[in-house]
Amino acid sequence: MAPWHSRSCPRRSLGAPSTLGWRRTRPPIRHSSIHQTPDGIRHAERVLGTPLPEDLAESLQCHNGMSTWTTVLPEQSPLPVSGIVDHWQTCMDTAAENDGLTPRAWEDEPWWHPLWVPWAEGAGGAAQVIDLRPGPDAGRLGWAGHGGGGDFTDSWPDLASLLHAVARALHEGGDVHGLHPYLTAQSGLWWDEEGCCELNGHPLRAAPVGLT
Length: 212
Fold this sequence. Notes:
The protein is of the alpha+beta class. Helices cover 26% and strands 15% of the residues. It has helices at residues 19-23, 38-48, 54-62, 81-97, 159-172, and strands spanning 77-78, 116-121, 127-131, 141-144, 180-183, 189-192, 198-199, 202-203, 205-206.
């Protein structure tokens, strides 16, 4: 247990590298961006060399990600279109310089792939990507651009499925991959394990069912 945080609920391992531990070092921030224009989305598609997934494009036109770290989603903070482009380009450059586009002998996935769209970031800096490679798993979510190859363990089949699960947990109650919604002392949204009652010494309370 980290000495800087007093907890009354057990830790667990999450899909993103060190996500839960890193998240607790960041304060919940409720700062949003305006919606993205079709021109901005088309520019991103030209840079990435592929159309954005329909569910991501629709989401961005309603709400253009977050300009700063946020905890409105359980494990990831959605990027604005400019952040998607910047993160993709940075990972492409890094992979090209370090042979990161080819899987290593002991890994199933490369460190990065041109058809991975980094739609969000985990607290530790990894990207949650949408896998646009052709095949039965096209559209699935995974983690990449951190340590080792891409990780699609227990992945969501697509972005819409994740967003629907979040909406259901907030509106009807329940969890999203084991994380439940809470409200902080400042009424910010926070996600944690069932039974948690404090965050960094401040009280947490379960988010009321019907929260939108």
